[in-house]
Specification:
This protein is mainly alpha-helical and 164 residues long. The chain is built from four helices and no strands. It is 70% helix and 0% strand. 27% of the residues are buried.
Length: 164
Amino acid sequence: MIMFVLIRTITYSALFIGLLLIYLPTRLLSWSGIVRPATIATPQIAGMVLSLLGAALALWCIFTFAFVGRGTPAPFDPPRRLVIRGPYRFVRNPMYIGAGLALAGAALFYGSWQLAGYAGLFFLITHIFVVAYEEPTLRRTFAQDYEVYCQQVRRWWPGFRKSA
């Protein structure tokens, strides 16, 4: 069972990462005429660190969905259990935060305002998706457990809310 979930998770994640975090940013850089910097300086190092931290966070979330939630990050094949462990203990949407940080790191690495705009657009669209689709779906699916989770953990900024 877990092997089948893991294969689905890797497949869906590779498609998502491949399209939104690799293919589209690469096309944007190409259309903008931006090439890899000739030298590696402080902005490039900071961009690599930020991208690696974001990618590591996103991957941690993906595998937490598979092993804890028994599902995938894909909206049409979601976790069967509410995932509140791993990075989800600190913030409700760490996978999106990780992906956005990876994009922001790439923008920093390349010194690309276009890629920074793409990262901002990614966060905006993700926020709309979370509020309009994901949260209502989780409320219907996990009912009171999700409500309690929302009261304890913030949507975008890591930290805990005070319990009533």
